Structures are given as C-alpha cells and as structure tokens.
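Hello support,

Our group uses your service weekly, and this is the first time we've seen a run hang past the timeout. The protein is APOP1 protein. I'm not sure whether the cause is the sequence or the server load. Input pasted verbatim:
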Amino acid sequence: PPAHSRSDWIGPPDKHSNLRPVIFYVPPEESALERRLREARQEAQASNQRFWARHNRAFRQEKEEFIYSRLKAKGLEMRDESGQKATLNAEEMADFYKDFLSKNLKKHLQYNRDWYRRNFRITFLMGQVALVRALRWLRWRKKNVEQ
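Update from on-call engineer: The timeout came from a worker crash unrelated to the input. Re-ran successfully.
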C-alpha cells in the first residue's frame, strides 16, 4: 500500500487457501493495546491461511486420487478420446465428499474451536480499544468545552 494510506489493504484471493490476504494499517502512534489487537488479527489471518492452504491441498490431491481410482476401476483413462478430462457423476463425487468430510471431521472441529477462541479474543480487544478511544474523546471534548 502507498505510504499515505490510512486503512487496511485487502488483496486478491490466495491461490492455495482462497482467502484474501490483508495488509494491516499500522498507525504512527499505535498504542500497546491497538498493537495487541492488530497482532491478534494478523495471527488469526496467518492461522486461517495455513489451515485452508493445507486443507485445500489435501482435498485436491485426494479428489484426484479418488477420480483416478474410480476411472481405473471402470477401465477408463483420465482423458477421453477428444482429450477432455474425464469426470465422474454427481453420485460418485458425493461419495468422495462425504468420505473426505468424515475423515477430516476432527480437524474441522479443532479449527472451529480455535477460530472461535481467536475471534472472541479479537472482539474483546476491539471492545477495549473502542472504550479507550471513547474515553479519550470524552476527555478531549470536556477539556475543549471548559476552555
């Protein structure tokens, strides 16, 4: 982002995780509390990036292996006579999706627990930052009204 920018920048979706990366704005006089909030948001983003990149990589690999094994069992190749990639029908793919989700249930449950924990912490920090800013504004307003 340009040096004069005063907001977060959101990039295009990552090719591995499909998540949009965020470059967080760092104010010149960032308080310790604001820094903790920004760092918590950055860690949550990095954690989500790692999880979904690994998950999507495993999904694509296992999907290809599943399709290959099913096509091979039918005596078919990965590409048909015209060079088009061979596919399976929706029912066959539903078997894969069900098995993949069942096999990864514990990973998803752990990810959801971590996600909620991180987001609760971020929300709590956001509340603290908002309260500090409101109190700072009220003190500033009181001071200016008295003058």
